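Lab meeting minutes (informal)
Scribe: AK
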Amino acid sequence: MTNRGFWTVWLLLFWGVVAVASPTESLKTILEEFVFTHPAQISISYTDLTTSDHIGIAENRPYNPASVIKFPVMVAVYEQLHLGNLNLDDTLVFTNDMRVGGAGVIQFQPPGARFSIRHLVNLMITQSDNTATKMLMEHVGLGNINRLMKERGLKHTVVRATNLLRAEGLNYSSSRDMNHLLVQLYRGEVFSKELSQEMMTVLLRQQVKWGIPKHLPGTIRVANKTGTLDHIKNDVGIVLVDHHPYAISVFSQRVPNRLFGTGWIAQLSRLVYDWVLVRSQGGGAGV
């Protein structure tokens, strides 16, 4: 189906559903129809940050989060900051055993190079640097990361591997867990309003934009973190729309190919945005 054909079909469905259903029911129907028409195994969690309306589709199913796990790792780093156990200007030494391939520039630095924790966090989130992630995870400790996620109410998030290229069957999370953590962050409940805002600012500097932000207007700010491996495509984030900002987390596996996975998350994100925009403007029955 061409892009024009895709949007024609979905806009017809979109307006038809909005006209006859309550707000959350209409969006849930749109998302269910979208998931049904795609071959990948998909999980979606959506929360309106103004009304707390929530929709989940297979949201408790555990997935390999891939690089999405870097969001909880950042939160764990900031917990240690909050507890006084580290300073963001402290430096960590890069060694050969910390080197991880894939995304990132730290892997190409010489052993012995030093980097501030602040810089490593920024690279881990904005460029999805795998080596920076391993350095931070080893420094904070997997035990602290897992304990913190449980304390924050995440039921499916477990981290057993610091090399994210070798984490299949070891690292798990769910769209529900990530959305839960995003909601806490937006509300300023992650340690303090100041630290929550600081982490939001890092997410807003995200440079990897193939998913949630791709088809949204350039004026819409998105604080997101992607995750991608062969046959895995994930993206989680906060979309700062006037009146009805929302958190959305999308996990997928068994994706037929890389292009398909990145494209459909961007399409799904635009459908949700259009629905929220209609709701914000008072369109549709019961909206």
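Next up, CB showed the second protein from the same session:
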Amino acid sequence: MKNIPELLFRVIRVCTVIVLISELLSLFGNMDWRFELFEHFRVQYFVSLVLASVGFMVLKKKKWALVSTIASVVNIFYFGHLFLPFYSDANSHMVKFAEINVLVSNQNYQAVEEFIINNDPDFVTLLEISKSWSDNLKVVTKKYPYIKKVTRSDNFGIMILSKFDLSKVAEKSAFDVPYYSGTIEVKNKEIFIMAVHPFPPASGELYKIRNDQFSLFQKTIKDSKSKYKVLMGDLNMTPWCRRYFSFIKGATLIDTNKGYGPKFTWPQGLLFPLGIKLDYIFHSKNIETAEFFVGDSVGSDHLPIFAKIRL
């Protein structure tokens, strides 16, 4: 029994060292796709190090408690901004948006339709849309008068459903991946819309292509003359990695998640304690978020997101 505290200390110390090394590697996230992977788990680093600090204090290992406490606080600088709400001079006109990565192999069409029907968004972006998905979304495709879609057998099909005219929204390509951009009119106010799904940075080549896609999206939204702007999609980055901060700065956008704390959209399921956020609805700084939430499972590996914005 006397050896139990020492054994416990060794276990906590080993786990802490692993987390500290991972956190250290995350500091080089802008240099290589492998290092960027370590950036995605800052919330988990924070929770792990806080628990380790408590354990070290109970075991009276003050130096280790101090090290783990300082290391845990570092992570707050990366995700703490999500607790801070953003306010603008927007008036009271509301527009509702939803984004769902449905997962091309998922067949729970009813759950996706129920999420859309229950929340009644004005504009919906659906990702990983195949012909099967297009054919089976029979209820919502009747509900929305304006629809555009690109069906594909891989992970990059896309569909947008809107209550507003989409005649000025066009399909475009970013390195052979389709996306939509253009303007819709809401109560005599023009909103520039982008619905995107860049590559996941799963290799050095894809990492470079994804970053080039980001540059294209930034330029496209900055070049728009519209006063109001919204960009939404699965961006394959987390809101506590440095690529995220450079992206929203370059595009001059605000995350609808801001003010609601860290949220997680992937992977839904058994690995969800290791979850990260990949799905977004961004808006320009003259718009204000009135509501944001992550929905329940729709059978995909991603969870759906919903935002109500005030123009």
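CB comment: DSSP finds nine helices and twelve strands in the chain.
No objections, moving on.
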